């Protein structure tokens, strides 16, 4: 019995079936295949990080006095628990009641950015009107994606990657 690495699979072809394989492979009675580098990179499981751990390394602030700096959880410690709770699998809804200008939108945008890397799927933010949504996309969301290497890698390149109201 031959041991193989975990990413290789040996197939034993049936007689006369693998007409597309070279004759030497058919005569030997086995065919070995392996994942390519791109396949392995795509299927590699990322090391899980909570949003409060991920944000200081990957999320730049795009508006306000701290624009251009990475998100500092010491400045907004109240967001740590909200962001970490929002990604738990049994949490379906979170209500935030807070004073104005206390980084609520930044926290929600960070949660959506985190899900783009760790829990891929569709995400949507609703705004009261199209003008507000378009302005938000232009001034907050698009710069957030463009300034983060982790988020930039997740955007499929092409002319339609960024639209007026979405990525």
Describe the structure.
By secondary structure, this protein is mainly α. The chain is 40% helix and 5% strand. Helix 4 runs parallel beside helix 5. The longest helix is centred in the C-terminal third of the chain and has 18 residues, at 130-147. The model has no long low-confidence stretch (mean pLDDT 81).
Helix and strand layout, with pairings?
Blueprint: E1 8-11, H1 23-28, E2 31-34, H2 37-43, H3 51-58, H4 78-86, H5 104-118, H6 130-147, H7 149-152
Antiparallel strand pairs: 1-2
Helix pairs in contact: 4-5
Low-confidence stretches: none
Please report the distance between the alpha carbons of the first and last residues.
51 Å
Structural class: mainly alpha
What is the arithmetic mean of pLDDT? 81
What does the radius of gyration come to? 23 Å
SSE order: EHEHHHHHH
Give a quick rundown of the structure.
This protein is mainly alpha-helical and 167 residues long. Helices cover 40% and strands 5% of the residues. Helix 4 packs parallel to helix 5.
List keywords for this structure.
elongated; 167 residues; two-stranded antiparallel ribbon; mainly alpha; 40% helix; single chain
